[in-house]
């Protein structure tokens, strides 16, 4: 039961370690005849790519190559293989982390599971794997078509949440934090600067939204649309929670406030609110699908923490070198991609059963 | 791509509508030789069964029958079929909800998806389906064995959260709310009484915990242990959010506080805290696995809400008859069951790949 | 990774032992809105049911009950649970086979795999399981619709093959052997009578055909239409081989004779022969899909054979009581059902990916 | 529901077109700690590689590159990505086949399924895809370990079958046909020479055998070991039939001859024959697993055949250039690989459920 694939009808499998020769994915089940070329994928990869002042200093072009499944500019229905060479992986010295179980990292659990692991740069557990999610997400967007818009924003960094009143999707593109509120973006800039100087890191909450999703997507019982979204988001590195619509706030609500009332607009049913986050009984309502997830602070920090070695010696762990004080920033395009993938998968699944 | 099954190695499929002749499930992949009889399953079903003063008045014995896969008191490795007859389903008049899209219910989305639906008592979307999750969970507990303990509690009802300082697992069994804090249980009693009188309903947060889980369970990338837990919990009716360990609180944390430091206890690695909730990189650490999920207030309430009919007429919806003011209470045994199922599935998956 | 399910989009799971309380299946992924009632399924079950002079004497009504997924005479898209009570299972004495490994039976392998087994009447390994394949096949036929006809015939019994020149589909219904050639049916009657008197059994070859299958069904590479048909047929009890189109005869052919030439009939491509058996590259051509499979002689015979006991003692095995001298006869409706299921599954899969 | 993956626990996915930039596969679920390096895979690829006098003239080194999942000479449990660059794919002129539906090829069915296809050298339907099966099979052999031997031979070419009495596994390596009988190999040499001169092609039967397989592998009902073998073999290009053990010959047998009797050898159960081909009830007996499959004559021949064009014009098709008069020869290593893969998959599946 290997775990490196996601999706049932739109299905992709990723491979590759952070400091191996390359990373890649195979996307299977893509409908034929969709226009697709490398720049369509590269566009989204470039949005994820680290390099800004506030993210990791790893500088790789992350140039994607499509190896199969596309012919004369269109998908053929055959599996699409995409590869990114790791250019930055040579001549590293990993002796400092080779035998270390670092707090907050997967070193210990991989060791317990496999006995043998690729310790270079986090190996398979590295967030570098998420690049291929973004690549697969680019194809998922093609499957969804132009009527569906999937986008995301950072809505909280450390203790600082955005103001919903000032929400502006254009602002998201205008700052290095995907912040939908220009004023809060400035607060975050100070915050992250302070965190970096302290050698620490900070958490974040991301919100992803899909507009234009037709009603009827999702399966009852176990493969509910929101259940698959929850899995998709929780599978992203460092994520500790997921919510849909009102989410955890629903606990304190009363029944008369918690549900979306309906009225008619001509012959269309309209909802008077979107507390449900776009799903009822696990199936899309036609309203925006809205999910949020939380990313814990980066585990690699300059502040010494207590760790142990493979040999069972107690030690202090300090992580030098490039790292993101807030990995949540880079998770925004990844969350968007996973949402697009879940929707594309359920679009094809729905078409299969219900025509 | 049907959605009525869950799990890869320990896999179960449920069927049945709320007011059809019966509900049931088939559990496949169960290891042979485990002692199993109907009372082992019935015990857990009885814990879930409504009937108390604070839950729905539907009174069914919910007597489970094992139809296959068990011989001479032990599992054979063949699929285990379990059935519960619906005794309460006859002679109902559903004309009042037949053509209605009720706010917060799946009426509208099922209609949009399938065009044709079993409207009796919510049909397939009814929480009655969760009885079979509890039945499958009883078998999952057998697979996990006596060293693993899976249990749950309600940790918030409406705006009232329990006190962690007063947490007492024995208290959980001593009140009708699965409340681990006797003092808060009294607050809840007043709260739910008030809600009921108002014809309203209230939300809740449930925490489920597994102790004794060996390190190494879970798959990297997409089938992370926590990702599968997130899907499992979000697939439960009315759930709007899931978190692991510190969960959403991680957003406001600093890197030096967010991760579990390690020390040696003899030749064993020990963690000095459990902020991770028992997983790192999607794989169990050996600490308690701790997840929380939120259940929205029951959508069936006496307070009139705006709905529409299948024919496109605007109407007011009032739900009479038996209903739970807080469906979260009944979700506790369901959450426990789903956690046990995810763990059993990953236990077998891990054994398959890693021996 | 349990093995009691079949299909990806049209997916069914069977359960139950030969002499347990009941057998059943759950069919998931069925499109909504298909007319379906118990007689639609019963019709096909009755064709499979033993009882004739030339098959087993087990006399059960095999009355199917639909427990879910159908409402007001139509499928709802929810899982369809079907159950057949075992009326004939009581008060048996199995002490003679309880501790025996019988030649040609699965006693030994189940014992080696599971250590613990339900030995009553073959338990899970009994051909009784195939009744639920026929039930699921009845629903698959509904999915395929009236334009697709799936039917089968016995084309060889023992050494006696039918004459292709005398093939008559009407004859198939007019004799107890599903023989398409009235003359050969008479030969078979003598043959089976002789075999029965000798306390022996005889093998058979079944041919199943689907007409009206649209071109384009099947997946490249591993889930080729013919690959899934091969798995479907080989999964039937006692089957030892499967072939498509010319099958094994293709070994001795020359390239110029082995392939189907094409011409135009108006604007339609027509094939001048059907050596391919209706698939090219694993995808349906639009011609008849034609497969054959071989069923070995019944292993339960009156002639003593060398077996051993669980305790490791050598013994002679003689099987008394009701048995089919030619189980191949009863495999005809099962083969038809499995072909219908594979086609329905691929129809939905194709619609999912290609619209 | 894409179809380019195979296996449940040991699972691989292939990608790539005959004349695209590369072909590759991702193998997921491989146990950690197995010694593995590129030469381990290359060895088996070299056996499959065309180039001999009697196979296609395509001359590519087919050098495999391992991109992930192996570290310090051992598998890590992470997905193993393998790639072979297509060196021979440039500057081709495909205008002669671009718009053609060739008899016996998948041109027509791909067109009907996808509407859009990569026509270069057969695209995804080319037998070149089978190279990655051999690569995955090399890893499957590692999973099975040294106690299991998987090997194959050509047992019939055109009308000429080998003599079982002269069977010699060493001979298989000593002629270009994988022929286990040196005398028949000479007959084949004349036969294939004659076929080639005639511009025709010829069919073949391959037998694959696995020794040392433990008893207990395989799942009841649908994922029987022999059912999965049947699917595996039928999924190989140009295969039209599969049989296990006595196979189609079982039709003409009597019950007393068709089954393997048992005796004790010390405390071990021994079978007095292996008519079953190593499985009973779909589960391995511990005897050799023996399967045969038939490969139709190559469809690309010099003898003109009737075809049509995409535009609906009738035409004569003659295939010039390099081609194998008997593609069955190259199918031997592919069949071995698929058998190893099915066994490795079931080994891990069995360990998961039964420990």
How would you describe the overall organization of this protein?
The structure is a homotetramer of 355-residue chains. The first copy, chain A, is of the alpha+beta class and 355 residues long. Chain A is built from nine helices and 19 strands. In chain A, the strands form six sheets. The first copy, chain A, has a five-stranded antiparallel sheet with strand order 1-2-3-7-4, with helices on one face. In chain A, strands 10-9-11-17-12 form a five-stranded antiparallel sheet. Chain A has a three-stranded antiparallel sheet with strand order 8-18-19. In chain A, a hairpin with a 2-residue loop joins β15 and β16. In chain A, α1 crosses α4 and α1 packs across α9 (328-354). The longest helix of chain A is centred in the C-terminal third of the chain and has 27 residues, at 328-354. The radius of gyration of chain A is 21 Å and the shape is globular. The relative contact order of chain A is 0.17. Chains A and D meet through β2, β3 and β6 of A and β2, β3, β6 and β7 of D. β12 of chain A pairs antiparallel with β12 of chain B, so a sheet runs across the interface.
Relevant terms:
9 helices; 355 residues; homotetramer; 23% strand; globular; five-stranded antiparallel sheet; alpha+beta; 28% helix; 19 strands
Order of helices and strands of chain A: EEEHEEEEHEHHEEHHEHEHEEEEEEEH
Residue share in helices of chain A? 25-40%
Strand content of chain A: 15-25%
Shape call of chain A? globular
Determine the mean pLDDT of chain A. 94
Q: How many extended strands of chain A?
A: 19
Largest inter-chain contact set: A-B, 115 and 115 residues
Number of helices of chain A: 9
Q: Could you name the ranges of chain A where pLDDT drops below 50 across 5 or more consecutive residues?
A: none
Distance between the termini of chain A: 30 Å
Structural category of chain A is alpha+beta
Oligomeric state of the chains in view: homotetramer
Within the largest sheet of chain A, what's the order of strands?
Answer: 1-2-3-7-4
Largest sheet of chain A: 5 strands, antiparallel
| Rg of chain A (C-alpha, Å) | 21 Å
């Amino acid at each position: 039961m290997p775990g490196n694939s996601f999706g049932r009808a739109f299905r992709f499998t990723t491979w590759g370690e952070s400091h191996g020769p390359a990373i890649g994915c195979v996307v299977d089940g893509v409908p034929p005849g969709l226009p697709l070329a490398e720049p369509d994928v590269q566009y989204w990869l470039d949005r994820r790519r680290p390099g800004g002042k506030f993210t990791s200093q790893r500088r790789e072009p992350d140039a994607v190559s499509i190896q199969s499944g596309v012919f004369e500019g269109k998908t053929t229905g055959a599996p699409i293989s995409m590869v990114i060479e790791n250019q930055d992986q040579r001549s590293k010295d990993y002796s400092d982390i080779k035998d270390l179980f670092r707090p907050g990292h997967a070193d210990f659990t991989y060791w317990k599971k496999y006995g043998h692991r690729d310790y270079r740069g986090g190996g398979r557990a590295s967030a570098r794997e998420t690049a291929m999610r973004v690549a697969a997400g680019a194809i998922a967007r093609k499957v969804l078509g132009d009527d569906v818009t999937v986008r995301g924003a950072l809505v909280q960094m450390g203790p600082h949440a955005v103001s919903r009143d000032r929400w502006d999707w254009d602002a998201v593109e205008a700052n290095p934090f995907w912040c939908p509120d220009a004023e809060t973006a400035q607060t975050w800039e100070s915050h992250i600067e302070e965190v970096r100087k302290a050698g620490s890191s900070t958490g974040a909450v991301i919100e992803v939204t899909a507009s234009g999703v037709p009603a009827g997507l999702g399966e009852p019982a176990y493969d509910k649309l929101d259940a698959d979204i929850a899995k998709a988001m929780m599978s992203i590195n460092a994520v500790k929670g997921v919510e849909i619509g009102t989410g955890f706030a629903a606990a304190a609500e009363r029944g008369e406030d918690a549900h979306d009332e309906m009225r008619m607009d001509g012959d269309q049913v309209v909802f008077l609110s979107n507390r449900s986050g776009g799903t009822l009984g696990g199936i899309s309502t036609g309203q925006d699908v809205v999910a949020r997830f939380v990313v814990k602070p980066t585990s690699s920090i300059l502040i010494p923490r207590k760790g142990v070695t493979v040999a069972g010696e107690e030690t202090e762990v300090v992580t030098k070198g490039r790292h993101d004080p807030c990995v949540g920033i880079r998770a925004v395009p990844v969350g968007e991609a996973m949402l697009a993938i879940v929707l594309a998968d359920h679009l094809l699944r729905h078409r299969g059963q219900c025509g």
